[in-house]
Design brief:
The protein has eleven helices and six strands. With about 260 residues, it is of the alpha/beta class. It folds into two domains: about 60 residues; about 190 residues, Alpha/Beta hydrolase fold, catalytic domain (Rossmann fold, 3-Layer(aba) Sandwich), CATH 3.40.50.1820. The two termini are about 40 Å apart.
Length: about 260
């Protein structure tokens, strides 16, 4: 079967499910012929075989991806991250929780590039959930994207731009906090890359004062959710499940 025959079969007989993605499906045929199968190999397969191959290929391409970005001194298995990953995977999302480098002394110049490397090519099927400094990391990553690129959405949990409180009286801690709080960040650019977002805070967070919600509400246009008595949503406080984050991501992605 040649390219034109595959395209004809896809759109005339097997392509009803691709009507809204016709351009993408056409590219898929080309990729299958150029990468997945040689023309010689493909000539021995039936049209039905190629349609199955196309559906398999495009399921992986159109699956929603979620990246959970941990915060300062955390790991991928921290607190509520494993629970949230499992819940999202059960709903068909592809979930990645990258391990960011040197979590005891996180720096913008190694956290943001790490996220960029893990994500690859972002698109409107790409979503983020951040906790604490992970929220800033996501924002700073989004600021680096080319004009016109949009992601599906973000859920920010205990994020900050304005100030932090209750930190240890330690020189490295002060220096890290200063870097993240004072390094310029254009939130208007960040907002232009996000289709929708939710920012979740707790009314008794010992590190993130409530006035941090202002930038999320006023510039990023995030929906603001205030939880009661959840502290910093941390494992040390016993937070091993976070339904509000799950519900927010499902709402942003319109899959609930």
């Amino acid at each position: 079967m040649r390219r034109q025959e595959a395209l004809g079969f896809l759109f005339c007989e097997g392509g009803r499910g691709f009507e809204r993605r016709s351009a993408a499906a056409r590219v898929g045929v080309e990729e299958i012929f150029s990468r997945k199968l040689s023309v010689t190999e493909s000539s021995h397969h039936s049209p039905h075989y190629l349609v199955i191959l196309l559906f398999t290929y495009y399921y992986s391409q159109m699956q929603k991806r979620v990246f959970i970005i941990h915060g300062w001194d955390a790991t991928p298995d921290y607190g509520w991250f494993p629970w949230l990953k499992k819940e999202l995977e059960n709903r068909g999302f592809a979930v990645t929780i990258p391990q960011l480098p040197n979590t005891e002394e996180p720096r913008i110049n190694n956290w943001v590039p790490t996220v960029a490397s893990v994500v690859g090519e972002p698109d409107e099927q790409t979503y983020f959930i951040g906790h604490s400094m992970g929220c800033q990391t996501i924002a700073r990553y989004l600021e680096t994207l080319p004009v016109g690129i949009k992601i599906g959405g973000v859920v920010f949990v205990a994020g900050f731009f304005k100030r932090l409180s209750g930190l240890e009286d330690d020189e490295i801690v002060r220096d890290v906090a200063k870097e993240w709080l004072e390094t310029p960040l254009n939130l208007n650019i960040v907002a232009g890359h996000i289709k929708g977002s939710v920012a979740i805070f707790s009314d008794d967070d010992p590190y993130v004062p409530m006035d941090n919600q202002e930038e999320y509400r006023d510039i990023l246009k995030s929906e603001i959710i205030i939880e009661h008595g959840k502290g910093h949503f941390s494992a040390s406080a016993g937070t091993v499940e976070l339904p509000v984050a799950l519900d927010s991501l499902l709402r942003v992605s319109e899959t609930k």
